[in-house]
Each structure stands twice: as C-alpha cells, then as structure tokens.
Amino acid sequence: MSIQRNSIRSAVFVFFAACAVFPLYGQKSRAGNVKKIRPAVSKEPAKPTPPPVPGKRNERPDPDTSKVDPQVVGSHSSNSIPPYRYEFLRPEFLVTKIVIEHDERGVGTITFMKKGADELITDPIAVSQKALTRINDALTALNFLGSDENYQYDKDYSHLGNMTFALTRDGKTREVAYNYTTNKGAKTLMDEYRKLGNQYIWIFDIKLSRENQPLDSPRLMESLDSMIRRDEISDPYQLEPFLRELSNDESIPLIARNHADRLVKQIEKEKAKDEKKKNSDKSE
User: Fold this and answer.
1) Which CATH class is domain 70-212?
2) For residue 279, what pLDDT is reported?
C-alpha cells in the first residue's frame, strides 16, 4: 500500500514538473519567431525628371568672323561717318535690305534684313585688299568726288533693286543712286558691293546652320560653289581659312565637309596659278 502511494506521488510530481517546463519552452519558441516589422513602402510611382529645356533654335551664332580674315578684328568708331557706304533696297527679294559701311582699310560692318524678319542683323566685315583695290580703281576711273555725272540708265529698272553709294574723303561727300547703268565704273562699283553682300551673308547663314540646322549645310555649300563659279563672291581666297575649318567640323554632315574640302583644293589651285602668273610677269 505504501508502495502504491509512492508511485502516485511520483506521477503527480512528474506531471507538475512537465507543466512548469512546457509553458516556458513555448514562450521561448514564440518569442524567437516574432516577425520583424518593415517600414511601409509607398506604392506611388516615382515622378520622372523633366527633360532639360532646349535652347532657342533661332538664336544667332557667334558673329566672330576673325577666323575668316584677321582684318575683321576691330571696327570703325560708331561716332564717325564711314568713308564708304553702300545701301541696297528691294522689298520683294529674299534679302530686302543691305547696308555695307567700311573705312579705308576695309574694316566695317554689314547690316541686312531678310524677308519676313522683324529686325536688322549686323556683323563685322573686312573687305579684302583685292576687292578694295577694285573698288578704289572704279572710283578713280569715275573721278567720283569731282564729278556730277548721273549714272542711272534712261530706263528705270527698280524691280532689280535700288542702290545708293556715298563716299566721304578729304572733307567732301558725294552720294549717288541708281538701279541700272551702262557706265563701266559705276557698274563695277555696284557689282563689287553686291559680291561683298553675297559673301558675308553666306558666312552668316552657314554659321547659323552649324548651330541650329546642320542638315541645311550641304545646300549652303552648294550655293557657295555656284556663286564662286559665277564670280558672285567678293574674294574666294578670303574664305579659305573658314572653309578649312568647316571641312573638319563634325557637327555638320560629311557631304558638306567634303564639299568644303573640295572648295579649299580648288582655291589652292587657283592661288597657285595666280602666283605662277605673277612670277612670269615679273620675269618679263
């Protein structure tokens, strides 16, 4: 009987011991499996970064033409009257107005307006020595300041555009206006300034193309080539440094660069012919 009581006591003791141990084990296990709380992530999509605002497509290029000719550096005083002044007006033309002013060295400005534009464009120019000599020779042949001859042809050709030229020298000023003439010297004067306008407006256009419309440069190179062949450029030799620059400018299409390179080689060939002719004349 006593043995049975001891067995019962042992069983009760084991039971209470088990109850004491298992809750603790369960608590430990649950504590070890506690899920970590992560910060909430916003499901709102990220706002895209706005693209940079492109620059104005119609802004003018840098008017620095010193790479065309060293004489361009510097300008005449705006307070003084330029000795040479040429003006051309024809509202129906692509270029409606051209004003060229320069000093005895050929340093000055060209101001022009294109059809549909609302402002004048002014850039520096440098008349080459060759072109300046032709202009002065024509003025000498005309005895320009000492003459009062009317160069206008009997018939009016104002549909071709009206030209005004003024020369100030030794305290004297004379201004003439005509749109067509049969006088050789007066025609040379008109032609020389028209060629100057062609040359420097083309320079402006190709620089604008390089900055804003590179794909237009092949057409402009073709235009220059055509004007050189027709003798409509004041001095192609003066363009050689600029054309070399264009031939290496990767911002314009390859076809335009190659065209510029061909023109450079053509100019070099013409210069070599001129040099040979000068040497031949000296030897005689």
Assistant:
1) alpha beta
2) 82
